[in-house]
Amino acid sequence: MTFIQRLPNALSILRILLAPTLPLVAWRSSPHVFVVLYAFIALTDLADGQIARRFNATSVLGSKLDTTGDALFMFFAVVSMFVAGLEFYPFAIRWFIVLLIPNIIYKLANLFVVRARFGHYNAMHTLLNRIMGGVFVFLPPIFILLGNVNFWIVVTISVTMFLFSIEETVTILRMEEYNPDHYGVIGSRLCRNKTR
Fold first, then answer.
1. Deepest of 24, 43, 81, 194, by most Cβ within 10 A of its Cβ?
2. Chain centroid to CA 127: how far?
């Protein structure tokens, strides 16, 4: 196995190791240092899958490392917002209640649906999940730099994430064979219409 084929898993492991440092950096350092670290971790998330697909280095282990890294990254990003926003305590609590808890519960439920159907735990990377992940990835640095975000934006994103997770469940239930990179029910239709 070449260096470039090992690189995706190394990037996922790096994300797993760095994600828990985000709250500490948000608490003890300047917002700009946090944003630089956050951006670096986000880039590892973008790069690992792209490199794996481009150099034919995809694997079950790589998919699980990526899923674990994504979950830890998002969890610690929201914890960072809470830590950095202690002076906005009610707002931070709303972030946890409205955005984090319901979506984590539903995402975990999807892992169990995959387990029940295909015999292993893994997460999907549907087109809608990727879009929402891209939107969500910008919120923690904005929150930390600005110190506040409109609560109704949070509600809108949370509801959208929940709907996208339902689409992921429907996709899992309709699949004959497990494919973590399936575009999803809606994503497949959108892509099919685009090629016509």
1. 81
2. 13
